[in-house]
Write a structure and sequence with these properties.
Strand order of the largest sheet of chain B: 7-6-8-9-10-14-15
Helix content of chain B: 40-55%
Strand order of the largest sheet of chain A: 1-4
Order of helices and strands of chain B: HHEHEHEHEEHEHEHEHEHEHHHEEEEEH
Structural class of chain B: alpha/beta
Number of domains of chain A: 2
Shape of chain A: globular
Number of domains of chain B: 2
Number of helices of chain A: 25
Largest sheet of chain B: 7 strands, mixed
Shape of chain B: globular
CATH class of the largest domain in chain B: Alpha Beta
Oligomer: heterodimer
CATH topology of the largest domain in chain B: Rossmann fold
Chain lengths: ~625, ~400
């Protein structure tokens, strides 16, 4: 490797890093102030690119010059900024009082809607953006040609960093942002107009996302999948840097850019997993990222979310549960094949969602990577049947054991963390599992997966297999429910609500959370094993991020404060999807709108709403979550 | 443009043509339409799938105006597969159970195609995969219910290797998306180039993640190894980014570039004025194909949709007529009758004769191989010729070894 190559390659790395930083800085600022993990940040980036690819050519028609190009980029970013502010005013402002996870869910709804809006407005074909005038050429650096525009991008990243630093240090708005990042309640107590502060922050964050997108148009073809491909990487950058820290995001982007540029020389196939490996290592060593502070150090009191009071089943509940089971039992008798198939999927998803809820609602452990254990169970069962020569019965029993073993391994590191960092570490582990299944072609079949995972002959009819699934999922759900009501569940909730106090009364917090993580992973693994036999194949989409997000949506949709919430959520989510998908190509928009509507109308989820309906006749309960 | 179309709209449309044409008036009396389930990534891969669906609907109208098949109208029932195998298998079940389709067809992604193929095997129903390119579909994981229309990854790679053989390029670099299609194309290329050009070596390989290429770093890594030829498998947004970066940095200058699918309008149109000169590609030079049936198709498509046809449109059109011919010859829509008729059946398509080879259930549909060129501000193909797929199939011995089941 000669010197000129190393320099050119590291400049390429810098250009990527610079683009990444501009986008990530917006996300980190928004998180710092509002504590919202804004899934829609990638959508804002995509909007910026689409707007720029529309606006910039118009301006270039007037005058083909660099200033016109930059003007177009700025206008696009400003429009995206306004969009972000509107999103705050119309949507987010109404849901600051609901649990943080629901805000995340709402932003996910925005992602779905923007995706379909973009297809509707700009079409599905990718659009190549115009090149920047005067920056089309390559500059010779040590006899190698390097794109002038990428030098410009490197400069842009540094300018954004400098402007943000000035803004943060020298303006009142910046001081407020920093103050709110440190202690939001204190800022509120001092009489700062929070509404304006939050709207302004969302404007700034969205502006940066839009700017990042608009600056990409001379390099990439603008396409409808930009949002998803950028959002995970941006999350990684902000988490490695420490959520809320702009300099942290800058350093993290630099590291990732260089690692990417040189990593592919040594391991050309590492592209899928590199950033997640880095994030896992950083989080294991530094639990709050490079520059982040722990929640305790930030002086932030974390309000407990999840199941706050356990209710025993009353007569009415027993009747409802009995009826539900009776309906399920009647399904294979009266339903057609398709209904039975959907029934199997709902049951499987319900178990997976319930196991995730066991972590979130009871343990306070928000996992963004729950699909890993679902997928590990599916892969274990599928590979045991197709490669191991086992039959269905032992494979289904081994699936939760194998998934549980992996959950124990990953959980050992995961439970040391908390909050968003914990969530991101689960995501990193899930991505690593995903990449292994994806790339270990000889063993796992790569992204094509393995087909031929069908039940034993006695269970091959859909109706019989439905009964198998029903038996397994019901027993697992009842067992997990039992664990929630047992002393173990109480200890877990104690650890969630106050780790320090739980520790003081003799609960081994880490260990109990670790057990919970393993148990939940095993239950998800069982669901995965059952799912693989209903689908007949295994493939990496079962482990992918969208799958994890689906589980999360099911839990939140159902409501995290009641025990049976996720069951309702899984059924509702799957039915909505199943209902809209055959009707229209724009089913994601309907799904997104349904989710947002649900968050606005039933901020405690479907079963939460049902509970508050029945509570109306009882003495007023204490508010579940104190308004901010 | 019928983008927001539902099943009801199709039925209504059929009714309308039925009133217009005398042939349909008879069929309307004689019974229910023959339904075919079409599963594809209409929302996620819309750039391919919407032109594809347009052409199918156009062909459906034409076919039904001329009496359909077996005196009954054809009706394609379209479903989105959500681009995941799980969703695809569920909608396949729905089509078979609820919509009562005679067989299923379509799919875009290889893993979706394989999952649906296995479903077809399990439910003993015919599946005609139109777009997925993975060799596994008709080879190692093939089954007696699954057929494929398009030339596979192997066939298209072989066409390109044959075309580049004469240039005797020895030092090769490979850039391919990091998933099955890219990896198997790269593996095919390595194997075929070693046979075609003695002494050929692969000096660099790059596997960027699909949809997330870091083009600068990738181009740098390729240039560093100083290959004389580059085999490219990236497509879509990755391709555009790769080409731009490569153009600015001079990666393609004085190098032979061989590229899969790049000549297809789906991927060529977005390249626009960045279209590189002289790449050897497989593609679809629709505007230059003068054969009468094809020209008539192009004219009808342009008139109906006010848009130029993509490769997807061509494929959808051929596919719809193939369904009609198959059903007409089988004289029934029973699965066993369809399978028996389909094996080794010969079809007349707008690109010439196509045989559905029985041994691996792979059609001998060909592809256009040529060089890219810039025509004003849009890309085009030049010096192209149509390669008959029959010349590029796996040998029967290879098929037998792979399809043991």
């Amino acid at each position: 490797m000669d010197l000129s190559f190393i320099i050119i390659q590291s400049l390429s790395g810098l250009a990527s890093a610079s683009s990444l930083f501009i986008i990530a800085s917006g996300l980190t600022i928004v998180f710092g102030v509002t504590r919202i993990v804004n899934f829609a940040h990638g959508s804002l980036y995509m909007l910026g690119a689409y707007l720029a690819v529309t606006i910039v050519p118009l301006l270039l028609d007037v005058d083909r010059s660099l200033p016109m190009f930059l003007l177009g980029v700025l206008i696009s970013a400003l429009i995206v900024g306004v969009f972000g502010a509107l999103m705050e005013i119309i949507l987010l402002r109404r849901i600051y009082h609901v649990p943080e996870l629901f805000q995340l869910l709402a932003t996910f709804g925005v992602v779905l809607i923007v995706q379909d809006l973009v297809i509707k407005i700009w079409g599905a074909v990718e659009i190549p953006g115009p090149r920047a005038p005067s920056l089309r050429h390559g500059v010779f650096i040590m006899d190698q040609r390097f794109p002038a525009y990428e030098l410009f991008l490197i400069a842009a990243g540094i300018v954004v960093l400098a402007v943000l630093w000035l803004l943060m240090q020298k303006t009142r708005f910046g001081v407020l942002i920093r103050a709110a990042t440190q202690d939001r309640e204190m800022v509120a107590a001092l009489g700062v107009n929070q509404a304006w502060l939050f709207t302004g922050t969302l404007f700034l964050g969205a502006f940066l996302a839009g700017l990042g997108g608009a600056l990409q148009i001379p390099r990439v073809a603008i396409n409808t999948q930009m949002d998803i491909s950028i959002i995970t990487e941006v999350f990684v950058v902000t988490v490695i840097g420490g959520m809320g820290s702009v300099p942290g995001a800058f350093i993290a982007a630099l590291i990732i850019g260089q690692l990417q540029a040189f990593g592919i020389l040594i391991f050309p196939k590492i592209t899928l997993v590199l950033v997640f490996l880095l994030m896992a290592v950083v989080l294991v060593v530094k639990p709050w990222g490079l520059f982040g502070k722990s929640d305790a150090a930030a002086g932030r009191a974390i309000l407990p979310e999840g199941i706050l009071s356990l209710k025993r089943f009353g007569t009415v509940d027993n009747i409802v549960a009995g009826l539900a089971i009776a309906v399920l039992l009647a399904l294979p008798v009266f339903g057609d094949n398709y209904m039975v198939k959907v029934g199997i999927e709902v049951l499987v998803l319900a178990l997976a969602a319930f196991s995730l809820h066991f972590l979130i609602g009871v343990g306070g452990i928000v996992s963004f990577g729950h699909a890993a254990y679902f997928g590990l169970g599916a892969y274990a069962a599928g590979l045991l049947v197709t490669k191991g020569g086992l039959s269905m019965e032992p494979s289904i029993l081994l699936a939760p054991i194998i998934a549980g073993a992996f959950a124990a391994l990953f959980g050992y590191f995961v439970v040391r963390l908390s909050g968003i960092y914990l969530a991101m570490l689960t995501l990193a582990f899930a991505q690593i599992v995903y990449a292994v299944c994806f790339q270990w072609v000889e063993f796992t079949g790569g992204d094509n997966g393995v087909v031929g995972v069908w039940p034993s002959s006695w269970a091959s009819s859909r109706q019989v297999y439905f009964c198998v699934v029903l038996a397994f999922t019901l027993s697992a759900i009842i067992a997990l429910r039992h664990a929630i009501y047992a002393p173990f569940g109480y200890a877990l909730r104690a650890a969630r609500d106050s780790a320090t106090r739980a520790d003081a009364i003799g609960i081994d917090v880490r260990r109990i959370r670790w057990f919970a993580f393993t148990l939940s992973g095993a239950a998800a693994g069982l669901a995965g094993g059952l799912y693989s036999f209903s689908k007949g194949s295994i493939d990496p989409t079962m482990i992918s991020i969208p799958m994890s997000v689906d589980f999360l949506v099911m839990v939140l949709l159902g409501g995290i404060q009641t025990v049976i919430g996720p069951l309702v959520g899984a059924a509702a989510f799957h039915s909505i999807k199943d209902f809209f998908m055959p009707l229209t190509d724009f089913w994601r928009m309907f799904l997104g709108a349904s989710i947002i509507l649900m968050v606005l109308v039933f901020p405690r989820g479907i079963s939460g709403a049902a509970a508050s309906l029945t509570d109306r006749f009882k003495p007023a309960p204490k508010p579940a979550v104190a308004p901010s | 443009m019928p983008q927001n179309f539902t099943r009801r709209a199709v039925v209504a449309g059929l009714g309308a043509t039925g009133l217009a044409g005398p042939a349909m008036a008879q069929t309307a009396a004689s019974g229910a339409p023959i339904r075919i389930g079409e599963i594809n990534s209409y929302s996620r891969m819309a750039a391919f799938a919407l032109p594809y669906r347009n052409a199918i609907q156009m062909a459906q109208d034409e076919i039904n105006a001329r009496g359909g098949a077996l005196g009954r109208p054809l009706e394609f029932v379209f479903r989105d597969d959500g681009s995941t195998p799980g969703d695809a298998v569920r909608v396949a079940e729905e089509l078979v159970t609820r919509e009562n389709v005679s067989f299923i067809a379509g799919t875009f992604l290889s893993n979706v195609g394989l999952a649906v193929s296995d479903f077809a095997n399990q439910r003993k129903i015919m599946f005609l995969a139109t777009e997925p390119l993975t060799d596994a579909l008709t080879m190692a994981q093939g089954n007696r219910y699954t057929y494929r229309l398009r030339p596979s990854t192997f066939m298209q790679t072989k066409m390109l290797v044959d075309a580049v053989k004469a240039r005797n390029v020895r030092r090769w670099g490979i850039v391919a998306p990091n998933y099955e299609y890219g990896q198997s194309a790269a593996a095919n290329f390595k194997r075929l180039i070693a046979e075609a050009t003695p002494g050929a070596e692969i000096v660099v390989e790059q596997y960027p993640a699909l949809g997330r290429i870091d083009a600068g770093a990738t181009v740098g890594a390729l240039a560093q190894a100083r290959p004389d030829g580059i085999f490219n498998v990236t497509f879509g947004a990755d391709l555009t980014q790769f080409v731009r970066e490569g153009n600015t940095r001079g990666l393609f200058e004085r190098r032979t570039v061989v590229s899969l699918l790049t000549g297809e309008p789906e991927y060529m149109i977005p390249l626009g004025e960045e279209t590189p000169e002289g790449w050897l590609v497989t593609g679809y030079p629709w505007e230059q194909i003068k054969d009468a049936p094809h020209a008539a198709f192009v004219a009808a498509y342009r008139a109906k949709f006010n848009d130029t046809p993509r490769l997807g449109s061509f494929l959808g059109y051929v596919f719809a007529y193939m369904c009609r011919d198959l059903i007409a010859k089988a004289g029934s829509v029973e699965t066993e009758a369809l399978l028996k008729t389909f094996d080794d059946m010969k079809f007349d398509t707008i690109s010439g004769p196509v045989t559905m080879r029985g041994i691996d259930k792979q059609a001998t549909m060909g592809a256009w191989v040529g060089e890219t060129t810039l025509n004003g501000k849009v890309g085009a193909m030049k010096n192209w010729r149509f390669e008959d797929g029959a010349k590029y199939m796996f040998t029967e011995a290879e098929v037998r070894a792979a399809r043991k089941g």
